[in-house]
Request: fold
Amino acid sequence: MRWIPWIRRGALAAAVLLLLAAGGGYLWLRTSLPQTEGTLDLPGLAAPVELRRDAHGLVRIRAENEADAYFALGFAHAQDRLFQMDIMRRLGAGRLSEVFGARAIEADRTMRTLGLYRAAEANLPRLAPEVRAALDAYSAGVNAFLQTRRGSLPPEFVLLFYRPEPWRPADSLVWGRLMAFHLSGNWREELLRARLSQRLKPDQLDFLWPAMPDDDGRIEASVVDPSVLDRMAAALAVLPRSYGASNNWAVSGALTATGKPLLANDPHLAFGAPIQWYLARIETPTLSVTGATAPGVPFTLIGHNGRVAWGFTTTHSDTQDLFVERLVPDDPSRYLTPTGSEPFATREETIRVRGGEDIALTVRATRHGPVVSDIGMAPDGMAGRDQVVALAWPGLRTDDLTAEAIYRMNRAGDAAAFRAALRDFHSPQQNILYADREGSIGFVAAGRVPVRKSLMAGSQMPAPGWTGGYDWTGYLPFEALPQAIDPPSGWLATANNNVTPADYRHFIAARWEEPYRIQRIVELLDGATGLTGDRMAAMQLDILSPAARDLLPPMLAAARAGGSAPRAMLDLLERWDYRAARDRPEPLIFLTWQREAARRIFADEMGPLFFEYWSWNLDQVASVLSADDPAAAAWCDDVETIGSIETCAEQFAAALDDARSILAAAYGENPAEWRWGAAHRAFFRHPLFDRIPVLGNWLAVPRVETDGDNYTLNRGTPQIPPEGVLFPHVHGSGLRAVFDLADLDRSRFIIAGGQSGNPFSPHYADLVRPWRDGELVTLAGEADRVLTLRPAAP
Reply:
């Protein structure tokens, strides 16, 4: 056995070598952290620039001219968020497969079919010269970092074994097209409603998803091939879905302690690591802008310029239509129009796949837009079919000037100039609130809204494209968009609610977000005086759930009538103050009960479409109790049982017992000891690290317990699992901002996560708990570290 000591020594040596290699790798990857102090000589600058970072890594840029300021912002974005920027442009261009391989083919096929990057390239020459110059300067700053950096690339590039390409101005513009796509979701809704129409009776569909009372009918199921709809839905599922939602409100000086306006904004988007926002302040002799930027984009998206402050929410308008096109019999290269037939416009694309064969793709388009039913199909997969589906959407227009509008918003000297800049804000349509130092507040739902000849089921179903009867005739003029200036109430607010006045005669949308958040804002602002920035910030943290306040009483009444509901849970819910607090059991009981009740009431009729519909229509659970309508009560009967008719009371009582069993198995028998925060944690998913076992856990952003639900102002939208007791908080206010027009340097901000996208940085997740706990910071403080960028010698 003399060889045993040698084996032990060899194993020990191997372990030491592995540790040394791991340590060396760790030290090498740490060289990917940016230089934040000293000086750097860079080509492309006209004069020295100070790039100052505070204790949280938040950036303040001081430059002698605007071009150098944009250069410095591009350099800082690349220092902190290079992988995020690269993945963004690759997603928009349909080039993820080049680095991720075959798993990204469907996402690339979808993006190539839509042509978002082509749209961005076409938008670029339409922009004013000064806007293109800003994009050029920003690109030069990104590329200066790529050319002069030392050490390792960020760890994602090392793990994937590739290097980023130089930055182009169109890479910045595609961010806007991607955001417009994510915030314009009507084609998903049309698909879902059409698929539901093939499972449900017309009266059932209209109960769940009413069509407008004055539309001209419903598309017949036979018009759309069910396999086409299912295939399109499956193709869309590979793309990250963004449930756009947000809050903003502005109050005039008449209601504030200082006599000057206040404006608050907290946009709600899907969480990620890192978050979409990057906080920065830019100061030059001619430009001062402070607020939230997006890595990859040179302009301030939500912020102030020392004279005007502004914020966004998504309008949730209907700016997309699906058109079913009929092919010419015996000639699938042509489709029918009201005046005869036309050939498809086609182009050839090549998707390069890492580790695989290139994929040749033929992209087709009709007069309405790209043929999205081709997504997920082989090039010959549509041959012989008698129909295709095309997407009409203003976000694909070549004359979109939204980037120019934001450039001018950044420079507006007062409310009137700001409003004028919004005329070129084209897509996506957004509820933009603004306020200036002179005391004016205003609102415009800015964007291109189609004018249709007529509506198909309230524009909520795919429309026949061959008739011309549902074609677009243009867009609403700017003056016809919903808007207001200095209202008598002294305040303006939006929360993805219906923003049209009672006498509004134009079509914006058939469906709006549930009104719970706007109702709560109105409650808190109505009659208020002496408002301060602290009051605005406290409103952003409000966790009273108006949805629970409205929906719980009829649910409780039904459960009591059902006779066998768990008493301890009923007692807790009856005493609940409707606050979705993380240290309380009631939010967890309420949401689990809703899920189980919805399953009992709707799943038998909806089948596999149940969770696609219900997750974002929670109030339908209680709608079956709100009227003495036999059609509503009929939902409660389980169609799969024979010889019995279940009542709503029985189903709600049984669902509460289901919830009790599920929660008790996970958290113990005593409901008073259950906690919402145990199930509801903020979840920041990284596009690469989360796919790698062990490494993902090591590099993950901390998952902190959070308050709120889908309908609180402090929005804590949970992912609704089909089973189980975990409801991860995946969507909410990734940014909060409060602007004080009495002194805009007192404006305060916070982002969820951290300023850096590098997991080795101390600023990768240092703002998670401050964000959760409602802390805010200014961007006007002193710098901890200063990096001076100097022009390189010729």
